[in-house]
Design goal:
- By secondary structure, the chain is of the alpha+beta class.
- The protein is built from two helices and six strands; from the N terminus they run ββααββββ.
- It has a single domain (4-81), classed as SHC Adaptor Protein.
- The chain has helices at residues 15-22, 26-34, and strands at residues 4-7, 10-13, 38-44, 52-59, 62-69, 74-81.
- The chain is globular, with a radius of gyration of 13 Å.
- Pfam families: DUF6522.
- InterPro entries: DUF6522.
Length: 92
């Protein structure tokens, strides 16, 4: 499986890609996503960006962004600082 796969319901990003971006383990990615410490946002392109999708993952004060085409091929990637977001998800 490549880093990003297209499914009938959208895209699936491999935990390994997110782990590398945040310099954590794949298990930490899964755990932090379950607990709302890593969140994500997906946006579809319009106008000149039609046929592209932007997926951004947030963790504390960092974000990791992938831009993919309609087949899921990665066109660009980047990591950058962000203002920490309010935590969503379960409160255990």
């Amino acid at each position: 499986m490549s880093e990003v796969s297209k499914t009938d319901s959208g895209f699936v990003v491999e935990a390994a890609a997110i782990a590398r971006a945040f310099k954590i383990t794949e298990e930490q990615v899964r755990e932090e996503m379950r607990n709302g410490l890593i969140s994500s946002r997906s946006e579809s392109g319009t106008d000149e960006d039609e046929g592209r999708w932007r997926m951004t993952f947030y963790r504390a004060d960092r974000a990791f962004r992938l831009v993919v085409d309609e087949e899921g091929e990665v066109l660009s990637r980047g990591s950058f600082p962000v203002t920490p977001r309010a935590r969503s998800g379960r409160r255990d």
